[in-house]
Amino acid sequence: MPKFTLPLNNQNQLIAPVIIILDNDMPPKNTLQARALFDTGANVSCITEHGAKHLQLKPIGKVPVATASQNISQNKYKIKISLPFPTNDPYTVRMSEILNIEVLEIQNNPNFDIIIGMDIINLGLLIVSGNTFTFSL
Hints:
Strand order of the largest sheet: 2-3-8-4-7-6
Helix content: under 10%
Number of strands: 10
Largest sheet: 6 strands, mixed, barrel
Radius of gyration: 15 Å
Shape: globular
Structural class: mainly beta
Order of helices and strands: EEEEHEEEEHEE
């Protein structure tokens, strides 16, 4: 089971590097090296407006979302997310692709580009211990 272990950032957030690829873009022409926030309170994964614009994503629909103050309609996209897992060779990284992930668009955030929600976290094992977190897939 491939895994990575990273320190929590200075705000106790679980942030990991990922690569976002257009769903049908093979070989990838347009990718985004992104910072992913692992959020167990999010049911679904999300991408920021900036990330969606950078990848020139085209919405596959709209989804009603209830916020604390209002109900809004958010764009939905289909993407691939690659998580970099280290190997025994310090010069090699194993990329694990999660195919056909649907994400919702959210406002830009200076700390991350994408939220990894429970739709992805449930595919693996997330452990938070001390000042580190480990994710296995």
